[in-house]
Write a structure and sequence with these properties.
Length: 440
């Protein structure tokens, strides 16, 4: 009797097209899968890495130059500086100068930059040391120290595709920072000064009516005292003593011990002051008439002098307000490039500098009509020069450095990433072709 025929294959034999066996370790199976797809894994990884390295090697080299300013800035001042530099009106000034220097390619790069992050790839600001992070703290002392922290240095880095381009762009950027941005500080200074002058002028105007009323009152009082003195024909001699008697605790009385004509003395009993205290009385009313007349005359002279000085200060404030309004108008018109009366939808931006503003202030100083106004202009001129001096950089000609391409480092990184990606793709292909063992 014939014996039944059995297949020659074993139960543990791998599939004809598979690379994994359910009975072997996962690491061995994974290596077997990678080896089976070695052309895909190695070819894709090496091809992508070589492509990245070649592109980085052939791309144009980037250059950079860094400028350092020794300027103390709080975090708020640093944010304001960035907003001013990256503002549209200031960028228009820089773009205009770049066009004049023939740097149209750099202008196109700035035009394509729509956000501050993209602009920082061309021109970047850094504060040294860095500002501390805002912590969630309820301690007012800690918050105050964080707010008062100041960076000692301000560095500006300019990037470009060639050494000449970096040098030209850096000259325009530093010129903007040192000659144009101080105009914004001067404008804020003028606005603060105008605000203080208007407040002071308003206080003088508000006190003028009260001072005039008090002066008329004192004049009427002086006339009454002089009439009373003429009618009585008596002038008290000597001094007076005010004495407060509190022997009788049920009633407080104020006694006036005085010397009258003839050398005799008397005590005048006065009714208790409201509330039972002698301090509610005006002791000036119990002086002799001659003393009261002199006091009234002194008060009148004081009020007249106050009114006169207030009037002089008020006229000076008006002159300073007119002057500073002209200075502010000059800056406003220089920032937009056209007179304010002709502004409709904006005008062409001009590269007006702080030095030109100083020249304008010098012209106003030469035509100053009064010494007091000249002193005020000189003070404003010194403050403006200090604002400009704060934007002076350390070192006139910094070195332009080439940026490393890092083709090798980035190629190795691309190789590692592509190895992981191609391995994952190989696993997916095996699963799609059904060559992976089913999970039990």
């Amino acid at each position: 009797m014939d014996r039944p025929q059995h297949p020659a294959t074993k139960p543990t034999e791998t599939r004809d097209r598979g690379f994994l066996n359910s009975s072997e370790p996962a690491l061995v199976g994974g290596l077997r899968l990678i080896w089976g797809r070695r052309r895909l894994v190695l070819g894709g990884s090496l091809g992508l890495a070589l492509t990245v390295a070649t592109i980085l090697y052939l791309c144009p080299r980037q250059y950079t130059a860094t400028f350092v300013y020794e300027r103390s800035l709080t975090e708020g001042e640093y944010s304001v500086l960035l907003r001013r530099f990256y503002s549209q009106e200031n960028l228009d000034k820089i773009i205009g100068r770049l066009h004049e220097q023939g740097l149209s390619r750099y202008v196109q790069q700035l035009d394509r930059a729509r956000t501050q992050q993209s602009l920082e790839k061309r021109i970047r600001f850094d504060a040294v040391p860095m500002y501390p992070r805002r912590l969630q703290t309820t301690d007012p002392c800690t918050s105050a120290r964080i707010s008062a922290f100041q960076a000692g240095l301000l560095s500006i880095t300019v990037f470009g595709s060639s050494q000449d381009q970096v040098a030209q762009v850096a000259a325009i950027v530093t010129g903007n920072i040192e000659s144009v941005l101080p105009l914004y500080d001067i404008r804020n200074h003028l606005k603060e000064s105008l605000y203080r002058l208007r407040v002071s002028a308003a206080e003088i105007e508000g006190n003028r009516f009260k001072l005039s009323t008090d002066l008329q009152k004192e004049k009427a009082k002086l006339e009454s005292l002089q009439a009373l003195d003429s009618a009585a024909g008596e002038t008290a001699a000597g001094g007076v003593i005010l004495q407060f008697n509190s022997d009788d605790r049920s009633r407080d009385t104020l006694s006036l011990l005085g010397q009258v004509r003839g050398g005799s003395s008397r005590i005048v009993e006065l009714p208790p002051a409201p509330g039972g205290t002698a301090q509610r009385y005006n002791f000036h009313d119990f002086l002799p008439l001659s003393y009261q007349i002199r006091a009234a005359q002194s008060k009148i002279v004081e009020l007249q002098e106050t009114l006169s000085s207030d009037t002089e200060r008020y006229n000076f404030y008006l002159q300073v307000l007119d002057l500073e309004n002209r200075l502010l108008r000059q800056i406003e018109e220089s920032l937009i490039g056209v007179p304010l009366a002709e502004v409709r939808d904006g005008g062409p931006f001009t590269y007006y500098t702080a030095q030109q503003y100083l020249d304008f202030v010098g012209e106003q100083l030469r035509a100053c009509p009064t010494p007091a106004l000249c002193d005020h202009l000189r003070s404003h001129l010194r403050k403006t020069e200090n604002l400009i001096f704060m934007n002076t950089r350390a070192g006139e000609r910094p070195v332009v450095f080439p940026l490393p391409k890092r083709a090798l480092q980035n190629g190795i990184l691309a190789l590692l990433v592509s190895l992981m990606v191609t391995t994952f793709v190989a696993v997916l292909l095996e699963y799609r072709h059904g060559n992976l063992p089913a999970r039990k």
